[in-house]
Each structure stands twice: as structure tokens, then as C-alpha cells.
Here is the input.
Amino acid sequence: MPHAVRAEGLEREFKGGIRAVAGVDLEVATGEVYGFLGPNGAGKSTTVRMLTTLLRPTGGAAWVAGHDVVREAAAVRAAIGVALQDAAIDPFMTGRELLRLQSVLHGLRRREGQARAVELLERVGLTDAADRRVGTYSGGMRRRLDLAMALVHEPKVMFLDEPTTGLDPTSRFALWEEVRRLNSEAGTTVFLTTQYLEEADQLAARVAIIDDGRIVADGTPAELKAEIGDPTLTVTLERTGDAVAAEAALVGLGRAMPSGVGRVCLRLPEGAAALPEVVRRLDLAGVAAAGLDIAQPTLDDVFMAKTGRRLEGDAEDAVAAGAEAAAPSSP
Amino acid sequence: MSRGAAVSVGIAWRYLVLVRRMPSVFLPALIMPLFILIATTGAFQGIASLPVFAGVSYLAFTVPLATVMGAGFTGINSGLTLARDIEGGFADRLVVSPVPRLVLIAGPTLASCVRSVFTTTIVLLAALIGGLELPTPLGLAVVYLMATIFAAVTAGWSMGVALRTRSIQSAPLMQVVVFLAVFMSVAYAPRQAFEGWLRVIADVNPVTQLMETSRQAVLATVTWGGLWPGLLAGIALLLVFGAWAVTGLRKLGDH
Here is the structure.
């Protein structure tokens, strides 16, 4: 099996002519952790729903674990594990009951299912909460149970749709560890959608960036950052009025970038090696610098370069909006 | 047990667990048939003196209405739970598992049938306490059968609605059609008491056949002549609303 997941010109158009996914091509190697990165509404979840047979494509084709997602949907479902966005778990059932139901759905015998439930509850740290209703679980516990349910039948390919959205940092890191373990110990291919740059950077061997239903970049995080090229130097000025003088002093060292008030930014092809020259020129020009900061390109820079927008703000806004929605209203 | 049957039983088990944990679902389906039995008998027992009733006890006459209505509630509940599952995303978990999609209909239908047996038993016990003469074993079997068929039919109807509307807001639609079907049948009086358009509707309404077959089993001895119209109507309703629910499954991948 050359690819665990492959899509060619995958499209989904909804009623009213809305094209949520507009011709996605992607290839995920067996045993790889693949990050599918994009802002809210970019088409990540719609793509995952098509790849997991939950939604029929209106164009193109896709194969998961070697099976066509439309013509061999049953074979695809047998090969995949899915943890969808918002951890759709029945709040009236207990964790153990849901794992047993999942075992039944995947054809495990009664005793086998019970043993698997015990093993998975232990693995995701929910043994003590196993017989409590899921409605009493925290967000992190629900996500861990969701992951455990997706693992009941030891799937070849795991789809995780924004698995850490809305989680606190501790729960997020715990889930990352579980994903790494799943990939390294069981060799499971992981298709991970996320709007968190750090998550994609930390977990994924390769990343695709989707925006407006199309993949705008695809490669390893290092390759994508290298495409952007040089590190960025930010000079914070002691006197904001020195900006023009500073820019003039640094001409020839790198390409000027848009910057805020009291700052000068430029791409430095030589990176940190150019810092002594920067300091010397600023000194000669009589410009006092309050700080010099040199940063390597991030996936957000890649996103900015490909789409003209920042992803970081979108993701933070989404988290803030989610937290606001979850917070009890004030009297 | 085949894989499909095992999964259907598993899904039915979940529906029954949910019923136990949600009194707001469990109690109306239990209380309403009892209320119908007691309130209807109390309010209308006087009309049993009319010649068309041929001297039967109005309590006995009302038992099929209460058992069929109780079964209807259990069927509607399957549609409500499915709508809640679709809205909340739990249905996706079922759909993405490697089982025939038919079990998504078969499991809840099985749960409704099991619940209807329980509801029918409670109604019969209440009626026996109220003075109902115990029907023959065959008569009891027919009462249970008609209620179970109606539970499966209403489960098919309400799940078909849930699959098409994908919203719990379709609950009134699920309920009103069942109520109309029951109350526009011979729920309160024998067919001979109806005239004009009410009689026409009662005659063509298949629920009338279910009700009359069940009523014959409570009031008299079961005869083939009294049994087959109910069986035929039940099978026809099962086919129609089974198809309605199954074709609704195709909508799952359209959204």
C-alpha cells in the first residue's frame, strides 16, 4: 500500500453553490503523521468528512487504506478510526459503556470488548472515571475518551479532527503525547487537522495548508519554512523618530518588511552572522536600539506568504470565542 | 447471532439505557397511556350504553387505545433520540463504523418494540386493577402484537423524519402525525358510530384495523376473520414506514 490516504481533485459543493472544498490533491504515506492546517471554514473538516465516508464528494476521488471512499466505503470504515471535532460523545452514557458499544460496532466479541475497554481506559487515564456519565467529564477527559473509542479496533489510519481545540495546555500536551505514542508504537498513520501552528509543527512529519477549500502549501515544516527563506530581524528603537534613519542604515543587509511603530524589520539572508554589521551601522547612524530580535520563519509566516493573512490571530480568536461561549453568562 | 443482529442489539441496548437515564423520556411514555386509559374511561364510560357498543365495558374498549398510544410514544422516542444523535454528532460515530447502515434503523426499532411490551404490560395491569376481565392467552398475545407492530411503525415514521430534517425541532411533526392517525381511527367509538367524512377517514385509516384487531382480542375471542385485517394493515404499515426510514438513511451523506 503506497499511500495511506490519497485524494485527487477532491471537491464538495453544497446547496447554493458553496464550494467548501475546491479540488484538493494530497498524499499521506503509510505510518506518517500528516498535519492538515487551516483557519476556521477553510475546508478541513469537510475534507475529513469525505475521507471518512461521512460525506459524499461532488467531484474528484479519494482512497483511504487503499480503498475508494465512495465505492468501497465499508472497507474504508473498517480500516479507520475517527475522532471528530467537538468529541461527539453521548453525555448520558458512561465511558465504559461507550467503549463497549464501540466494540460491538467493530465486531469484537463480548469478552474481547470488555478487555479492550479496560486496556484503553487505563491507557488514556480514565479508569477511575470509567463508570461515571460522560456528561460529568471535563473537555480533556472527553477528548481522551474519544481517542480511546477511535482506537478500539486498532485502526490502520486515524483521523483526528481538531483534537485539542478548546483544551487547556496540560490536556493538549497529554493528547500530543498519546498521538506520538500511537504513531511510534503502533505505526498508525495519523491525519490530523488543526488550526494551531504549534500543534502541526510539533506532531506532523508533513503539513498541508488549506485555505478557501484549496491546498496552498504542502511539505515538511522545515521545507515550508525554507520556502519563506531568511530569518527576520526586528530592531526595536529607543526613539520612534529614528525609523527612517535606521532603515537607511540597514539598506543592503536584507529585504525590508512591514513593521509596527518604533520598529524596523528586515529579512536577513545571513541570519545571526549579520548581527555585528547591523549593530555597527546603527551605531554609525546614531540610532539607539532598545532591542534586537532575530526569529526563524514559522508556519504562520508560511501561511502569511501563501494567503496574505495571519493564521495565528484566527486561531486565538476562535479559542477566545469558544471560551466566551462556554463561560456562564453574568447576571 | 449475525454481525448485523449483534450490532442492532447493541444499539437497542444503548437506547434502553438512555430511556432509563432520562426520566423526561421515560415518564411521558408511561404516564400518557395510563392517563388515556383512566381519563377516557372516566369521561366517556356513559356512551358505552349506546347500542353501537353492544353492551361492552368502556374500560375494556379503551385498553387497545391506551396500548397502541403507549406503543406510539415509544416509537416516537426512537426518532427523537436519533434526531438528538444527528444534531449532537453521535450519529456520525455510528455511521462511520463498519456496519450496514440498516442497523441504525433496526436497533432503535428493536428498542421501541421492547419498550412497548413494557408499556403494554403496565396498561394491562392498570386495566386489570380497574376491573378488566383477563383476556385469553391468545387474546393477550394479539394485544401485545398489535402494540409492538405500532411501535415499529411509529419508530420508522419518526426516524424517517429525523433523518430528513436532522433536527430535534421536528419533534412536533413526529408526534402530530401519530396522534392524528390514532385519533382519526376508531379510538373512542366503534366504526358504526361514525358518519360522513369521519367515517371515510376511519375506514381507510390502517390504524383502525390495528385497533379493531386488538379490541377484538380484549373484548371477545380471537378469530382469523378478526385477526387478518390487523395483520395485513400492520405489515403494510411496516413496509411503508420501514421504506420511509431506510430511504432517509441515504440523506446521511448529503449534509
Observations:
- The CA atoms of residues 4 and 30 of chain A lie 5 Å apart.
